[in-house]
Design goal:
heterodimer, A: about 110 residues, mainly beta, five-stranded antiparallel beta sheet, about 55% strand, B: about 110 residues, seven-stranded mixed beta sheet, 11 strands, about 50% strand
């Protein structure tokens, strides 16, 4: 069955460094991937969407890549700040285009 | 203005009870969703619904039922609550199904005792 995996359950980095989060998908080919941010006690908030024919997308300090050969998306936060600490979720439409499939998330902690 | 709202924010109840969670969106979206996020933080789709079609995740027990009085509302009714139903439930909406981004509500934290 189709599945999204996010390699790290938790990731700690120093302030100012670049955080890189990984999303891998198996058993399907999504037309696009989305990245969401979830803070404790809140619902996920959409950050970026990248389509299968796009290699890279940027928004301020955020960058997302999509490699259909590796079946992988990378999410980068440059010049990370403690305020970037949150759980980041990868998601895509399922193979039938009916619903969204979410990865388990990576909890990022940016240490001052 | 809150785009997607849910009530209540917290719900504590006894096993066997029936409860409802309400969801409203003021974005004019045509598709609404219910998700369950368990203690391991895994977000799983339960239902998606637009005016024409209800799509049910086959793993969802039939004790759970969505009810939509109109396009802006999708309520979740749960019968005979069980301990394993304890989780955070999120409502979300999107324009035109999976072709567009979802907007999530703040969540309802359900605890079944």
């Amino acid at each position: 069955s189709q599945k999204i995996e996010q390699n790290s359950e938790a990731l700690n980095i120093q302030e100012g460094k670049t955080a890189t989060l990984t999303c891998n998908y198996t058993n399907y080919s999504p037309a696009y991937l989305q990245w969401y941010r979830q803070d404790p006690g809140r619902g996920p908030v959409f950050l970026l969407l990248i389509r299968e024919n796009e290699k890279e997308k940027r928004k301020e300090r955020l960058k997302v890549t999509f490699d259909t050969t590796l079946k992988q998306s990378l999410f980068h936060i440059t010049a990370s700040q403690p305020a970037d600490s949150a759980t980041y979720l990868c998601a895509s439409p399922d193979n039938y285009g009916q619903n969204f499939v979410f990865g388990p998330g990576t909890r990022l902690s940016v240490l001052p | 203005d809150t785009a997607v709202s849910q009530t209540p924010k917290y719900l504590v109840t006894q096993m066997g009870n029936d409860k409802s969670i309400k969801c409203e969106q003021n974005l004019g979206h045509d598709t609404m969703y219910w998700y369950k996020q368990d203690s391991k933080k895994f977000l799983k789709i339960m239902f998606s619904y637009n005016n024409k079609e209800l799509i049910i995740n086959e793993t969802v027990p039939n004790r759970f039922s969505p009810k939509s009085p109109d396009k802006a509302h999708l309520n979740l009714h749960i019968n005979s609550l069980e301990l394993g139903d304890s989780a955070v439930y999120f409502c979300a909406s999107s324009q035109d199904g999976t072709k567009e981004t979802q907007y999530f509500g703040p969540g309802t934290r359900l605890l079944v005792l």
